[in-house]
Specification:
Elements: H1 2-6, H2 16-23, E1 29-32, H3 35-44, H4 53-63, H5 75-79, E2 88-91, H6 95-105, H7 110-113, H8 119-135, H9 139-148, H10 150-155
Parallel strand pairs: 1-2
Helix pairs in contact: 4-9
Family: Belongs to the sulfotransferase 2 family.
EC number: 2.8.2.-
GO biological process, one term: dermatan sulfate proteoglycan metabolic process
Length: 165
């Protein structure tokens, strides 16, 4: 698209017709992950300087939406699902199943291209970690986190998220 190559632009700067023309020939895939799991992964990777998960969550909440790091910013604010009609939404934890389907739809041999993924172990590990980390949070932090990620929880099927309880 002509305007796209003129300068760096945000997708939201284009009207619906221009967006459709630009994105029409692409297969649009969105990879999503439970926001609470994203927080846990970010904390465990040492991206927060906090000594405890609870204090890390407090830093996240205090930063607000506009000053959030991409590592924990709500997905809806990053991927703009109301602007882009994604062809596939792939959930973390179901990668093997969903990537296999996606590769077959693209006409590629799914079995030989997929790395060894153990989705059931990922589910069990994150369930255990979530229980441990969630228990460290105060009732107020839990409530504020649910509010912080409310649009993600509404937009994507994170029904087993600790934040939707």
């Amino acid at each position: 698209h002509r305007r796209l190559h003129a300068r760096e632009s945000w997708l939201s700067e284009f009207n619906q017709t221009e967006r459709k023309a630009m994105l029409g020939s692409y297969t649009k895939v969105l990879f999503v992950r439970d926001p609470f799991h994203r927080l846990i992964a970010t904390f465990l990777q040492g991206m927060g300087i906090s000594p405890s998960f609870s204090s890390f969550v407090q830093e996240v909440l205090d930063s607000g939406l506009h000053n959030s790091s991409v590592a924990w910013k709500p997905l809806v604010s990053l991927c703009r699902p109301y602007l882009v009609q994604y062809d596939y939404v792939v959930m973390f934890g179901f990668l093997r199943q969903e990537l296999g389907h996606l590769l077959r739809r693209a006409g590629l041999p799914a079995g030989s291209l997929l790395p060894e993924l153990t989705d059931s172990q990922v589910h069990w590990t994150y369930r255990w970690l979530s229980e441990q980390m969630f228990s460290e949070l105060s009732a107020q932090q839990r409530k504020r986190l649910s509010r912080f990620y409310r649009w993600d929880l509404a937009a994507f099927p994170f029904s087993s998220s600790f934040l939707s309880e």
